[in-house]
Amino acid sequence: MASNNVIEQVGSVSHQNLLILIWTCFSCAFLVVSLRGFVRWKLMGSHRPTADDCWTLLALTSLLALCILDTLQLPSLYYITAVLQGSIPLSEELIYHTQRHLRFQFPIVVLFWTVLWSVKAAFLALYFRLFVDLTFYRRVWYFLAVFTLLAYGGCITTLALSCGPNISNFFGFATCATPEHVWASNFSVYFSTIIDVFTDLCIMAMPLRLIYSVKVTWSQRLGLVTVFGLGFVMIAFAIVRANQVLVAKQFVNLTLLMVWSTLAASISVIVGTLPALKALITNRKKQQHTQKSNGSKSRSVRMGSLGSRKEKKSMGSNESQEEILRPQQPDDAKLEVRIKRDIVSTPSWPLPN
User: Fold this and answer.
1) Are the CB atoms for 321 and 344 separated by under 8 Å?
2) What pLDDT score was predicted for residue 199?
3) pLDDT of residue 212
4) I need a labelling partner for 347 at 20 to 30 A (CA). Which of 16, 64, 95, 235 fits?
5) Domain range annotation of the chain
6) Rounded CA gap, 137 and 12, in Å?
7) How far apart are CA 263 and CA 21, in angstroms?
8) Are 53 and 45 in contact (CB under 8 A)?
9) Which parts of the sequence are annotated with region: Disordered (predicted)?
10) CATH number of 2-286
11) Helices within the chain (DSSP H only)
């Protein structure tokens, strides 16, 4: 019993505190996603899930599976850490715990990337509806969607080959310790981190032309910048996590690696949900204000209905809205009409993570 107490207290974070952190992070992500679903279902009257809803649900489900595997992996993680720190003597039991740790590690990493890429897919699904009938934006969207899918495949492929062509080497004791394997493992981390950051930047940059075309007040512009800057939170977590993995000539701090991986995955789900949630609430308040002014009955407006031709003309009837946007090219002219229908009533533009 004394030995177990020693093992659970090693590392930068104790076993109990790390377990609390893992499930607190999941609980926060679950609550935010549930609130998003409640707003859609009850307040907005949207009873049919959209593609971005499905991707967000997949991200949350993957996060749940990730947290379960993290919990199951913790005993072996702390045993290995205790041996590395000299808190317990070296024994043959280390082989068992190392192999057990590695059996969990591969699916944990796959689930981690699945969470992040599901959030990216959720924003791409949202853009698909926003950019309907806009030829230029649709072409960019298709290119970015294919690139993001290939990037996800690249992350999984480099992970699978990090211990050579025989994937079983990944799960063995000391079968992935040659200089070539170390180089391949580091390359996998570099590649996945760089491609993760790059795709985040591309998704954030996609609506830049739109944002610069909209004439808004300083408070509205500040709101756009705030929402737009949320993606940099994910970039910061990705860089910090990579820094925990790539420790030159030293053993990886396994507890801190799990801490930052859990935080990065959970924050990704939350950050990916908040912009859409803010837009939903803002759209509801604006709709209620418009309906009250016109003396009309309450009627829900679906989120992301930029392509809808069934919106009420009263939402774009204000003559001052004609000066919201500057005239641009033909696609921008279409975009101007679409924004006057919906974006004017929803100043907070939903941007990617």
Assistant:
1) yes
2) 92
3) 66
4) 235
5) 2-286
6) 47
7) 9
8) no
9) 285-337
10) 1.20.1070
11) 2-8, 15-38, 51-84, 93-130, 135-160, 179-205, 208-213, 218-228, 231-245, 254-294, 330-342
Q: Which of 286, 274, 295 is CA-nearest to residue 343? A: 286
CA 93/CA 87 separation, integer angstroms: 14
Measure the CA–CA gap between 160 and 170, rounded to whole angstroms: 8
What tokens appear for 92 in the block? 């043959």
Would you call 294 helix, strand, or coil by DSSP? helix
Q: What is the pLDDT of residue 347?
A: 32
Where residue 52 falls (left for φ over 0; alpha for ψ -120 to 50; beta otherwise) is alpha
C-beta separation of 207 from 224 below 8 A: no
Token readout for 347 is 């100043």
pLDDT in tens, 211-220: 666 666 776 6
- Cα–Cα dist 266/286, whole Å: 30
Q: Provide the pLDDT confidence category of residue 90 given band limits of 50, 70 and 90.
A: confident
**Which pLDDT belongs to residue 142?**
93
Higher pLDDT, 261 or 3: 261
The candidate with the shortest Cα–Cα distance to 138, out of 128, 149, 126, 125, is: 128
Bridge partners for 325 per DSSP: 214
CA 102 to chain CA centroid, nearest Å: 25
Looking at residue 24, its pLDDT comes to 96
Task: State residue 252 phi and psi, 5-degree precision.
Answer: -65, 140
Cα separations in angstroms, 299 against 43, 263, 340: 10, 39, 19
At 122-146, the pLDDT tens digits run 888 888 887 777 788 888 899 999 9
Which DSSP state fits 297? P
Asked whether 118 and 45 are in contact (CB, 8 A), the reply is no
CA 117 from chain centre, in angstroms, equals 7
Taking all residues of the chain, what is their mean pLDDT, rounded to a whole number?
A: 74
Beta carbons within 10 angstroms of residue 162's beta carbon: 22
AA identity, residue 66 = L
- pLDDT tens sequence across 244-302: 766 655 567 788 888 889 999 999 998 888 766 665 555 555 555 555 555 544 443 34
Four-point Cα dihedral 351, 306, 56, 200, nearest 10: -30
The radius of gyration computed from the CA coordinates of the chain, to the nearest angstrom, equals: 24
